[in-house]
Specification:
The complex is a heterodimer of chains A (309) and B (249).
Chain A lengths: L1 E5 L10 H11 L3 E8 L3 H8 L6 E6 L8 H12 L4 E5 L2 H14 L3 E5 L1 E2 L4 E6 L4 E7 L4 E5 L14 E5 L8 E8 L12 E5 L6 H15 L2 E4 L1 H5 L20 E5 L5 H7 L4 E6 L12 E4 L2 H11 L1
Helix pairs in contact in A: 3-4, 5-8
Chain B lengths: L1 E5 L2 E3 L21 E3 L1 H15 L5 E8 L3 H11 L3 E6 L6 H15 L3 E5 L10 H8 L4 E11 L2 E8 L2 E8 L2 E5 L11 H9 L2 E4 L12 E7 L8 E3 L2 H11 L4
Parallel strand pairs in B: 1-4, 1-6, 4-5, 5-11, 6-10, 7-10
Antiparallel strand pairs in B: 2-3, 7-8, 8-9
Classes of the chains: A alpha/beta (309), B alpha/beta (249).
Chain lengths: 309, 249
């Protein structure tokens, strides 16, 4: 029994989500291999070899794999799959894009967003935006999972796995990559941040959102998040959205500012270790999950908090 | 160009779901059912492409119980020209739905297939990508903008940390993310018109598809409850608690 983890990387470095996925893979039992498929992805492959518990890193390098195009990655994974009992992808935008394509090519079902490994074929996963937890058993020969990274600790570093380079499979070539826009900032990534400060619709405008949330985030070295209401109102960028349809986060400290706490938002952050809610509505549902609730006007409380930290 | 759009009937997004007391499933009896919100966005996008003159015909497809006809009528009220129901009372998992849709793609030969990125009941986020694999078509998942020209689709898609733009040759499969568009309200005259549009019904056997499940649900439970903590009177107390009690700053 051997598990193949499909690494998430940007060629130059390995994304932290890979480490959580390796932990889930180790819990499935058997050996763990990691596939790094990319272009000039030597540094990412070298980083993968340092993950504790990984027996082997498979490295495929080709120009067609530079941008993680689903068809191209799928061709590589499918060619390797028969040797494995489990295929694990992180449940990131990239993993969610590629995993089902691989599953269908192999004619196996997929278990999405697995949060717990109960045995080699039985897992837990949330359904209905986290309002119910299903225990599911895969009946297929190859178990194909995407792993919700917040459900598993990051694997430790300090290993020295064997490295094997493989030739790339040919790819169909009917998709071309035109470009990307990645928001540049020095803040930690939302899904990997230890502290998140998150703003809601009560902030009232994009200017006020930035004026209040940025100093707080700076003070705490935190990532900035937002509720769907704040994103839809244009106060914050799309990729800051925390919730079932946005990012699922589980930081050490989550500070919700002016967020009422819709079900879909709670589903995205309720696994945070400590939740603080600042809201002037005493009936706001966010208070029902907050460890510390401060009933106050956020325009007064947030600057006070920045000063007190 | 024909566009095929898949729609799913799900528990309405405003309903607080409850787990059945025997822990076998979520209780869907006597609960308001609606079209999956992401599928509504998919239909809307198809209608806009027809309004721009890019598409000529929109076919809405749903797989499931007889009541899915209501969902298909809604799709036709938004603007789909006709509908196909693949009727079965069996539990359908994403791979099975993808196989049913693949059979219909073979039959109808659409130039573009649009699906919602994910259904809000099982939260699988699989069917579109699986259909693309089975039909050997390029895919763009989580689309936020779609342009069609010269036999190609230029699609922006949402990725972690931003967005990227891909160009794919048609036919192709696109899955709709939240910000692709805002679906229009359905008007009464359009609801009346939708009742007269054609709705064809097939069984999975008619399409030669085996829909047996690959995943067995052993039980469904309520998630662990997070209990409310304490209310603090002021910022100073909050900071003190975070430092000495929670020890997170």
């Amino acid at each position: 029994m051997t598990t193949l983890v499909i690494a998430e990387h940007d060629n130059a470095s390995l994304k932290p989500a890979t480490l959580n996925t390796v932990t889930a893979a180790l819990q499935c039992g058997g050996d763990v291999h990691v596939l790094v498929a990319g272009h000039n992805a030597g540094p990412a492959a070298a980083a993968a070899a340092q993950i504790s518990g990984v027996a082997k890193v498979l490295h495929i390098d080709a120009e067609s794999l530079a941008h993680g195009i689903a068809e191209n990655l799928t061709a590589q994974i499918v060619a390797l799959a028969t040797g494995y009992s489990h295929l694990l992808f992180p449940a990131t935008a990239s993993g969610k894009n590629v995993a089902p394509r691989v599953a269908a090519k192999l004619d196996v079902g997929q278990l999405s967003d697995v949060t717990k490994v109960l045995s080699a074929d039985t897992f837990e996963r949330p359904i209905y935006a986290g309002n119910a937890i299903a225990t599911v058993q895969s009946l297929d020969a190859i178990k194909l999972l995407t792993v919700r990274t917040t459900g598993f600790d990051a694997a430790a570093l300090g290993g020295s796995a064997a490295m094997e380079s493989l030739a790339a499979q040919t790819v169909p070539g009917n998709t071309s990559y035109l470009g990307s826009e990645i928001a540049k900032n020095d803040r930690p990534e939302l899904t990997a941040a230890k502290v998140i400060v998150s703003g809601g619709r009560a902030l009232g405008s994009q200017e006020k959102f930035n004026a209040l949330m940025t100093p707080l985030a700076d003070k705490l070295g935190a990532a900035i998040g937002a509720s769907r209401a704040a994103v839809d109102a244009g106060y914050a960028a799309n990729d800051l959205q925390v919730g079932q349809t946005g990012k699922i986060v589980a930081p050490q400290l989550y500070i919700a500012v002016g967020i009422s706490g819709a079900i879909q938002h709670l589903a995205g952050m309720k696994d945070s270790k400590v939740i603080v809610a600042i809201n002037k509505d005493p009936e706001a549902p966010i208070f029902s999950v907050a460890d510390y609730g401060l009933e106050a006007d956020l325009f007064v409380a947030v600057p006070e908090l920045v000063a007190a930290l | 160009m024909k566009i095929l759009v898949a729609v799913k009937r799900v528990v309405d997004y405003n309903v607080k779901v409850r787990v059945k007391t025997d822990n076998t499933a979520v209780d869907t009896a006597n609960v308001k059912m609606s079209m999956n919100p992401f599928d509504e966005i998919a239909i809307e996008e198809a209608v806009r492409l027809r309004e721009k003159g890019v598409a000529t015909e929109i076919i809405a497809v749903s797989c499931g119980v007889t009541q899915c006809t209501e969902t298909l009528r809604t799709a036709m009220a938004i603007g789909a020209d006709r509908a196909i129901l693949v009727e079965t009372s069996e539990e359908l998992q994403p791979l099975a739905v993808a196989k049913l849709l693949k059979a219909l793609v073979d039959k109808e030969q659409p130039g573009l297939i649009i699906l919602g990125k994910q259904a809000i009941d099982d939260d699988c986020n699989q069917t579109g990508q699986m259909l693309a694999a089975l039909a050997d078509l390029p895919q763009v998942a989580f689309a936020s903008k779609v342009d069609i020209a010269d036999g190609k689709a230029t699609v922006s898609r949402e990725i972690d940390g931003g967005s990227e733009t891909l160009s794919v040759t048609l036919p192709a499969v696109v899955t709709a993310d939240l910000r692709l568009n805002e679906p229009r309200y359905v008007t009464l005259p359009n609801i009346m018109k939708a009742k007269k549009k054609s709705l064809e019904v097939f069984k999975p056997e008619d399409l030669g598809v085996d829909v047996s499940p690959r995943i067995k649900t052993l039980k469904v439970c309520e998630p662990p409850k997070r209990s409310a903590g304490v209310k603090v009177p002021d910022v100073a107390t909050l900071v003190a608690k975070l430092k000495t009690e929670a020890k997170v700053i």
